[in-house]
Structure prediction request, 246 residues.
Amino acid sequence: MRDHTQWIIIILSAIANCASAHTIFQEVYVNGVDQGHINGIRVPSYDGSITDVTSNDLICNGGINPYVQPVSDVIISVPAGASVTTEWHHTLAGADPSDSADPIDASHKGPIMTYLAKVPNATQTDVTGLQWFKIYEDGLTVSSQQWAVDRLITNKGKVTFTIPSCIAPGQYLMRHEIIALHAASSYPGAQFYMECAQLQITGGGSTSPATVSFPGAYKGTDPGITINIYQTLANYTIPGPSVFSC
Prediction:
């Protein structure tokens, strides 16, 4: 009974945090070099989540979370094979050591993913109908029950991954995403946080990865989207396709 009561307290605490513990992807580093605060990223003025996997807002946010105006017209140059680091914070003001929910509230456990979509122009306003491939994912370490979001918090909002060396050069949108699962025991409950960065990938090769669409890549019934995380999990299936590798 005591264990059951403890889980109820944890769940109620998580629900209480839902309204204020949001986050925004707002900084890109290329091979360790900071590209500037909100430069080249379509950041919203509100740090809220998307919960409807059938909404076009799942693509690059916006919609119910209006973009900061004017939207950045910067296109970030990234060599194929480069290391990219992203940085998240609770608000657009950036890092705030006095904010207990910065970069995101610790209750918002879940996976982190990155996708790319090749586009004619990385500053184009229309993002519907794009074809995306996943280049990075981090979920649950079963042995420690530690989530990607736990590691994000330890790293002060930063996540690092590699741009595939074999993809074609050109302009891309990079969709970087957190799925917070603290209220995901029923659908809609999972909270999706994502922004899109505007990239010019140089070098590279000619490989064309298999792609998925947003919306469409996720379903509300996916086991990685509707899940009770308030238990010891023997596994966790990250939503979406497999990670592309050269």
In short: The chain has three helices and eleven strands. The mean pLDDT is 93. The first strand starts at residue 24 and ends at 30.
